[in-house]
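Example record for the data management plan.
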Amino acid sequence: MVSFSGVFSRLNSFRCLVLGDFLLDTYTTGRVKRISPEAPVPVMEVEKYEMRLGGAGNVVLNLCALGGSCVVFGRIGNDDAGKSLRSLLQKDGVDIQNLFVEEGYTTPVKNRLIAESQQLLRVDLEKITPLISSIEEQCIQQLEICIPQVEIVALSDYGKGFLTNRLIQAALSIAKRHGIMTIVDPKGSDFTKYRNATILKPNLMEAYAAAKAPSSHPLDSVALEILEKTNVDHLLITRSEAGISLFSTHEKRRDFPVLSKEVKDVTGAGDTVLATLCLGLANQLEMGMAIQVANLAAGIAIERLGCVQVSLSDLLRRLLEYDTQAKVFDASHVGVLCQILKRCSYSLMVLSKDQVITLDLFRKIRQLSEKKILIVYLPELSLQDELVQLLLSLHEVSYILLNERSLCDLCKEMMPEETYVFDETGCVDLSSAKSLIKELLFEKKGDAFFKKIF
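Corresponding structural encoding:
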């Protein structure tokens, strides 16, 4: 088991290029009360119709949930589905200037008919056609401009014809020239088109198909054959609830068991792994650590039904079950905490460095934590101090800040809903001073102000 100590303090927002097939997933939900008189089939009364991003779009959603900003390369048709897909991407703040409209191309739509939480039927509207040469050329030219501006490149191949061999090799070659890592989620049985990628990430079934090997064949032999054919740096085989296996040319096989409480649905877990790997590797995590974090995210995803997006908050909550020290943030990584707290309100409690854990303090901590997220600020202390370690052991304390700059930076981004100072006289409510605190922070007098009142 890889130690998670300090992982989250090293994660910052990142920029990722996602190249692949964008689909529109639709969900028609209703009730079935009768059988049709025209044929022995159920009649569904529609109650709700919902549209979501599918294919490479689901990777983008996962990346956004993890605090990444995305540049997409793909194609849509000049149709209503394409317009809806474009709108959904824009809603999440995605850079879509390289989402090309191809005349005559049909935007793929997968419509699921659901009644009483049961999927009755899926209707696919799609026509697989290769990318026209003019758009292929335009893409390659734009990749030369865009790839140097990102930290990592993800290829999400759903076999709909956008990722031609020439386009794939151009993207991998440009990225390699600029020292940028590439992660490929492949499709089909011919993996040679992904030659020279940094990481190739097939699932177990895809790996055996690519090696043209029976399921009884040893996985190590399958991996060796793929590595020789593709010349990738790392082969990462996802094995659903069995976890992830990593194979590299000059290293021994490494297995990472999935960290899941209950397996409900493995749908979309591969996209979650791809996005979380981008998060880890874009932030310079060691490969084993990045995979372990991705495995953690996959474990959360398969505990839920359908394609889900695992957020930084989800990831940190699960991480804290294995390593409580991950909830300590310093000034250089408050941006990650802001991402985690997005759309949340929190209470702030300030303690002196000489504070001891009393019954009154514990009662107040418990009371505040019942209402909202509780952040404790401990000036002039370090991770090794006894008070910090005691507070780390309390699940009521969500996060801990250890210096004035981290507190000021957090409050500049998002003010606490309530603020309290606890000292030998008891608990003092500073919530009414919110406007004054905010004013002083934006005048850059925050450090002096906090020092004075805390």
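Summary line stored alongside the record: The radius of gyration is 25 Å.
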